[in-house]
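dude i think i finally got it to work??
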Amino acid sequence: MDPGEKRIRWSPILGISRRDWNSWRDGELIQWDHRSVSALTAPGHRWMEQNDQGRKRGDNRPHTWSTTGDLIGRTWARLVFGGGTPSAFPNASPHSDEFVELLGWIVAEGCYPKPKGDGSWNHVSISQSERVNPEKTAQLRRLASHFTNLGYTFNEYKVRPDGVVPFYIGSDLGAEIRTALPDKQLPPLLIASLTLAQAQILYQALIDGDGNRHVGGGDYWIQVDQGRIDSFQMLAAMLASRTAQKTWDALNGVSRTTIYTRDGGTSGSTHPSPVDYVGVIWHPELSRSMAWAARRAGTTYWTGSPELTEPEAARSQSHRRIGRMNKISSSDRPPLSIESTASTSSTSPSRNSAPA
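look at this
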């Protein structure tokens, strides 16, 4: 995302900058531990900050940059972790709006029946409770009518005693669905091929199928398959929403992914703590001073790469600030890898680009 225009676009990665880090020599890293932002960065790592004068005047001034080290002593800096104008979608798509909506329902509620033995089927089944969710059942009936009028097989069967309405999608349309959603996964290339309106349709279908709304606003999505969660977080990031995944081991690994309505938070809410670290730190190199989408410990957010060079005096000042904080001992901190800070492979349509 461009801090000035605030538009979300795909941008080529020029390379990956890597550096060996040793806290004894280079100083501590700073860990941010919040339910919506998890980060482990060097003092020179940059973050977007809301322009205070622009916020007070209500205008759209460019976001400014602040480093992790500079934010240590600032409790009320307004950091930008989400938001922006979605501009990463093409103007045209190879798919119809109805097909995209159906794909969302299949991911959430559909089933790929399998025959016994080594054979294969192409038909797809989906069901919904008319007793519990009459509005959702009506949506599936609308889609069934649409595709039936196009000559596809999309049949509704007799309502079961428990109120569930089963639908049968024949092998003609079913084969197209299975091709678009292998193993009911949402491929990144599929998401990247949608228009903005279709991405919003897909998002809403996923929420209608497996999601809900928090009291007071904000959606959440329930899912157990990590691949589908990865794709959902990519879709949300492209739609300018930051997310956080929480997994309940007691519920057989079921995860709830929260979609936040607020674009950011204060620097004090990140609960910064110094961490001794020996290993490799890295960041993507972009063509301009852009923010990029990162994911760590299930949280997604905008962040920025450090400057190409960091004045030694500034580094020393940052390290002195950190030294006055309470340190985390090696036995208290979880095993962390700085290389898990971002997951560009799961959020890009190709190996050489990442949302900026």
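Residues 134-149 form the longest helix (16 residues).
im so relieved honestly
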